[in-house]
Amino acid sequence: MDFVTNEKLTIVGAAGMIGSNMAQTALMMRLTPNICLYDPYGPALEGVAEELYHCAFEGANITWTTDIREALTDAAYVVSSGGAARKAGMTREDLLKGNAQIAEQFGKDIRSYCPDVKHVVVVFNPADITGLITLIYAGLKPSQVSTLAALDSTRLRSELAKYFKISPDEIRNCGGHGEQMAVFASTTLVAGRPLSELIGKEMPEGDWADLQQRVIQGGKHIIDLRGRSSFQSPAYISISMIAAAMGGKPFTYPAGVFVHNDEFKHILMAMETVITKEGVSYKNVQGTAGERQKLTESYEHLCKLRDEVIAMGILPPVGEWGRLNSHLK
Predict the structure, then answer these.
(1) If DSSP codes are grouped into helix, strand and coil, which group holds residue 104?
(2) What is the pTM of this model?
(3) What φ, ψ does residue 177 adopt, rounded to 5°?
(4) Which is the most buried residue in 169, 192, 287, 288, by most CB within 10 A?
């Protein structure tokens, strides 16, 4: 069985549950035989590598290293879940600053060790901000960096399917846009019918409000049920994104993408996107006035986070981004 490509894929944060599942998923999907696992925590990383060796994947060349230069050198594709988790006593600002600093170094390392990388997927939170920082410091084109943003959409798909007692495959175009999940009910189709036509009729308004909360709290629900945060779904979706960038099946769920147009400027945010071998691209969202207002609110929230990172000194002022990345002039 052939691989999609023979080019090197590097998994950053491979010692963690998401990263290790990314590696296994990529091998099971036969994306590339050349997979490099990177994590600064050597013992757990070696354990992941040993587990993968024991899977006996045919034709696989699995390497692992705690040296970021070795990990990124000659990498054509990179997926990173390498951020820090929020720990007891940490504020939101602590987490934001810590992961922003990790993203800054990650971007600089890409620029130094794999400037010819074709696509980078950033997973660690807040992904739209860490992805933006990575893009700026890596010096890549906006089409070369995307962030994980599809889980709200896949969770919405699941909840709608359960509510209407139909196959999830009958739920179409259920995009959740922006960090605060602006749901475009007018374009979401339930068995061929716009969701907006069902709300208030076949789905009472109260049920719709409750369903949205279940989607928003989907990650917390996993923790309540399993005693740990999600790792299977983010791993699979992230690898599906990089698979599309390699030339596999296009990825059509929302992804975080750098946006600079008449409406949204100097931001990386979840949009209606497609990832192909040409990279990630987005189209301007069509929706009702109320839906567009929700997306604007999400954009404004992300701008505040971006400006916090600028105030921390991790990012320069917006007007100076072009000095670090000529593609953002």
Answers:
(1) helix
(2) 0.94
(3) -100, 140
(4) 287
